[in-house]
Structure formats: structure tokens, C-alpha cells
Design goal:
This protein is mainly α. About 60% of the residues lie in helices and about 0% in strands. Helix 1 runs antiparallel to helix 2. The radius of gyration is 17 Å and the shape is elongated.
């Protein structure tokens, strides 16, 4: 998951670091904003398609017999 979270954290940190605020507040903003961004990216991007599952080193999603594939589980 570091492939997803690292660019997001760097992008948020770039915008937050030069603000005049205490370090703890800056860290909290970066963590909260990156969490709100990375979780949906992972759920919508990495878990949905066979190609992205393969790229992230996950097993193919199990498919039930004769039906639609199950919704991805986090």
C-alpha cells in the first residue's frame, strides 16, 4: 500500500509544511487528509480489478459459482 500512500502524503505535506502552525497540528492534518484519500483509493482502485490486484501482489478475487463476484472486502 506504500505505492498509494506515499504520493498522497507527500502531496499533502507539500501544501502543509510551509504554513505557520505547530508541528503537531501539521502532522494531524497530513495524517487525517491522507487517510481520507488513501482508503477510498485502495477500495476503489486496488481491490476492484484483477490487473490491479495482480500489480499489488494480491490473490485473484474469489467468484461464487453462477453469480456475480462478491463485493470487495477491506
Amino acid at each position: 500500500m506504500s505505492v498509494l500512500h506515499r504520493p498522497v502524503v507527500v502531496a499533502y505535506a507539500y501544501g502543509v509544511v510551509h504554513r505557520s502552525a505547530p508541528t503537531g497540528e501539521k502532522d494531524a492534518v497530513i495524517v487525517a487528509a491522507s487517510l481520507v484519500t488513501v482508503v477510498p483509493l485502495y477500495g476503489l482502485g486496488a481491490l476492484r480489478w484483477a490487473v490491479t490486484r495482480w500489480l499489488f501482489g494480491m490473490r485473484p478475487a474469489a467468484r461464487p459459482r453462477g453469480g456475480r463476484p462478491p463485493p470487495p472486502t477491506p
